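sorry for the late reply, my laptop died twice this morning and i had to redo everyting from scratch. anyway the thing you sent over, i finally got around to it. pasting the sequence first so we're on the same page, its 621 residues, then the predicted structure underneath. double check i copied it right bc i was rushing
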Amino acid sequence: MKYAKCFGLGALALALAAATCLASMPTGPVSAKAGSGGVTVKTFVKLSAAGTIVASSAVTDSVVGVCETTASANGMTSYSPPGARTTVTSGEAIAVGDLLTAGTSGYAFVLDTDDASTQRVCGVALTAADDADQDVTILVVASVVEQHQAITGADLNTPDIDGGTADGLVIGGATAAAVTGTTITGTTITDGTVSLAAGTVTGTFANLGIVTTVDINGGTADAVVIGGATAAAVTGTTITGTTITDGTVSLAAGTVTGTFADLGIVTTVDVNGGTIDGVTIGAAAAPTVTNLGSVATCDINGGAIDGVTIGAAAAGAITGTTITGTTITDGTVSLSGGTVTGTFANLGTVTTVDINGGTIDAAVIGGATAAAVTGTTITGTTITDGTVSLAAGTVTGTFADLGIVTTVDVNGGTIDGVTIGAAAAPTVTNLGSVTTCDINGGSIDGAAIGAATPAAGTFSGLTVSGAGTVTTGSGVVSIAGDMQIAATKYILDASVAGTKTRAGTPITIVFLPTTGETLSWVVPTGYDLLVLNAVGWKTAAAGGDAWDLQNNDGTPANIFAQEAIGGSTLADKAMAQFDDLDDTEWEVEATKSLDLVATEDTDDGGADGIIYVYGILKAHD
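ok and here's the structure:
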């Protein structure tokens, strides 16, 4: 049984007619109660047996409208009936004008015109949707059924098809007849004749039969013998074949390619590629060959080879009695008994050579691997590494770098800009007379400095050992800082009562105060100061105690206030003295200060003067 779709324009007209009839009916929402499972807004609904509305999810459902309010089971809701314009949720892409049916979850789906089953039309799309879950405005229509009618009998014997397509049909399968059309597309044309008023036949044909006249303007003709029955001229821009039989090949301007059993006599040929095998070139007349290209094997038994580089791509052995050339590259030159003459830009690496004459110019001897060079006179610009041994001779010249010279005896000339003893200090027996010398390190032992002509000497420290003497002429010894006398004991004059000895380094501290001034001397780190004696002179005798000499080691103590000359006070005296030789030592500890405080003001005679403090620096304990 064959089906012909009857829905087409007639079904659309039927749907629109139904919509027109419904347009006169009330289109306002209709109240209803939701059935079990509830209902969702913007979905197609149908009536249940209980008179409630439920979701319509099949194309065969009798849809009553579109739900307008979401409600749970037995809840009140409403729906838009046929004839109403409302919004429904799309279940797929929809175009304007599509006829819609109900589908999964009550969503709108496009009517399937290829489905032979019964379908109900629920609406006409007034807007489009690109995909599912989009709002589509529709006109709700009555449930119009799309039906497929079975056509039998003589209806198909003389059909008049004015549109559409005929798919999967064999036309003329039982009885062939003429097929007329503007464009005929098929897989097989059997027998008959194809007549074209003006057109084109396209496709792949197993057998076209005998074609009386054909004008081929494109494509390819494969596995075809042209002129197989009756030979005729073949004209083309490019002709490709396996065999050309008899006839003549004429080329206005072109190329013949291929393998030819016999080309006959070719008057002129330009061979630009391929190979020429088993051919005698020049059998009748010797040719001139401009370029032979690459010749794998060649046996030349006469003539001359001019302007040729032999072995340029791949070097090979050349054997001859006399070989004359401009350049020999790489390889090895072997002579059974002969001579190589000429001027050579580069001989490469020569394993063994015996040079008995001539000159070697601008050559580095031993550049890659140094070896001994023996000669009577060797002249060069650079001697690198190695050792120069002279049986009896002289090395002359100016040398940028002699390297390390183990032993040298310099008996004349000058040594300029040289650091002597940079790697290892030498022993110099006699420098002679040195006009100017700048000594920045080391020591000068057993030498009298300024013995012939004395000059000024500047030192950071001066040590006179043993029973040495520092002697001055009419000059003055000036000491900018403190002067310390290195000794293990400080012994006072034996005539002084209560003489004692003290272990340590004697030290004298001099203060030059002015009125209202405090002067401090800090004991060096690692030492303590034992004060033995202090003597001071004022510039004026009037006034009271002029100074306080204090131990700033915790609580200050006034030395002068402890003891003065004869036990008297300092009042109205120009000289004051503190003597601790017969008392317990007065000590100032390391990093603490000995302070001189000028206490007397100008009205009492002032405190200008000089104070000497004598003591011993001992190791801190």
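The mean pLDDT is 74.
thats about all i looked at so far, will dig more tmrw
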